[in-house]
Task: structure prediction
Amino acid sequence: MDMEKDRQEALTSLKRRDERMQRLVLALGDIGPLRPNEGFETLVVAIISQQISDKVKDVIKNRLEKRFGAFRKENYRNLSKKVLRDQGLSEKKAASILLLANSDIDFDGLKDEEMEEVERTLLSFKGVGPWTVRMFQIFAMAEEDILPLDDHGVKTALMRLYDKKEEELSPFKTRFSPHGSLAARYLWRLHDLDEEQIETLKKGP
Result:
């Protein structure tokens, strides 16, 4: 399988969906392949990210890495909630991370399971909801067709780029299929552009 050829074909296909997406892809350029992260790391970062800004997420993530090293189960298994809370995590997030770290689940092995089994297993952990599962599917499993409309970044990007209301976004899942994950990665990057650039994407040069 020629993965680079498949990736370029996916980019070409996504650009054909509509002019605004085409202009967004061209404006941002090739953002590179999606390289699957380790399962436990993906879940921890997703839990950290819940309901906070990217800036705050990065601060907490960096603190944890500096204090405990790589995001591996063995580095978190014997920690206390207080130690994690001292790094800026809430009580609930600290508890969720410890549940994952002390579980018997091989989160990398989980990537080879059917999607339904992945969802069932992950949702059994308190603090892991549908959004976190979707982040796992994108960033750990490298699933190609996940457009997380419940993600704040994706949702607001679609609303800004297409002048839509939140209740009007569901058709985009079909529009960008089977490249929903690639579309999501570009939509997350929309927030790197200023208002003038976004207006150009909407109206054209």
